[in-house]
């Protein structure tokens, strides 16, 4: 009893007949057997979907590569900015002026704008010998 009614019978008549014959009617899900044509149609749909997904995946990969290229300079800049903020110092290129204060024993380091950028003790090779120490070396020698 594969087919209860002739396929030429209109759908609304089939429904009326089924309702009059049924002892119970429910709404629910069920499995319908597919014809060879239906299966071929589903295979074509699957094939189309696979092709579309492949194209979308390639577009996604291309976008990610492009996006990474745009992100990289920002990421590098952020690393530098974080380091600058953390250390409260920024690396600059320019002329540096070392001015010694022999009396204080200090070396003052200035940038091109005259801003003090660092200060340290004089190294032994930067200290000027005094006349007293020169006389001491000559008389001992």
Give the quaternary arrangement of the chains. single chain
Mean pLDDT: 88
How many runs of DSSP E, i.e. beta strands? 3
- Residue stretches low in confidence (pLDDT < 50, at least 5 long) are none
> How much helical structure, as a percent, in the residues?
40-55%
The amount of beta strand, in percent, is 5-15%
What summary fits the major beta sheet? Answer: 3 strands, antiparallel
- Amino-to-carboxy terminus distance: 131 Å
Structural class determined from secondary elements:
mainly alpha
Rg value: 45 Å
Order of strands in the sheet with the most strands? 1-2-3
- SSE succession: HHEEEH
- So what's the overall shape? rod-shaped
Q: What is the tally of helical segments?
A: 3
Structural descriptors:
single chain; about 140 residues; mainly alpha; three-stranded antiparallel β-sheet; 3 helices; 3 strands; about 10% strand
Report on this model:
With 141 residues, the protein is mainly α. Among the domains are: 34-91; 97-130, no CATH class. It contains three helices and three strands. It has helices spanning 11-21, 36-87, 131-140, and strands at residues 97-101, 106-110, 116-121. The chain has a three-stranded antiparallel beta sheet, with no helix packed on it. Strand 1 (97-101) and strand 2 (106-110) form a beta hairpin. The longest helix is centred in the middle third of the chain and has 52 residues, at 36-87. It is rod-shaped.
């Amino acid at each position: 009893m594969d087919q209860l009614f002739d396929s030429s019978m209109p759908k609304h008549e089939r429904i009326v007949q089924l309702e009059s014959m049924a002892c119970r009617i429910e709404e629910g899900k069920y499995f319908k057997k597919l014809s060879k044509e239906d299966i071929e149609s589903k295979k074509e749909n699957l094939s189309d979907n696979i092709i579309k997904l492949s194209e979308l995946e390639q577009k996604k990969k291309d976008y990610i590569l492009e996006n990474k290229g745009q992100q990289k300079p920002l990421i590098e800049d952020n690393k530098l900015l974080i380091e600058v903020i953390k250390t409260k110092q920024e690396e600059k290129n320019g002329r540096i002026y070392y001015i010694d204060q022999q009396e204080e024993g200090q070396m003052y380091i200035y940038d091109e704008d005259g801003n003090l950028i660092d200060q340290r003790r004089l190294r032994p090779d930067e200290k000027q010998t005094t006349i007293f120490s020169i006389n001491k070396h000559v008389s001992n020698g």
